[in-house]
């Protein structure tokens, strides 16, 4: 798994496949069981190679800021890079599958 963190080591994004700019690799054994189901930006912190619950986490009131962008919003360039990376991976899988036939 790859994660991105802010300056307080709070996890603000993650991917299982592909990549994120300035991401950190985390072993799946160092991730809480319900991380994916419960994920919210800043709800978890990354310390000593492990993802743990953030004791200082407070849920934001989204009703007051409906149009404000969050830290997880990505630029067009980053999204294009992610799509290109995923397309390369799909192409590689297709080539391997064709070689097996």
From TrEMBL:
InterPro entries: DUF2977. Pfam families: DUF2977 (PF11192). This is DUF2977 domain-containing protein.
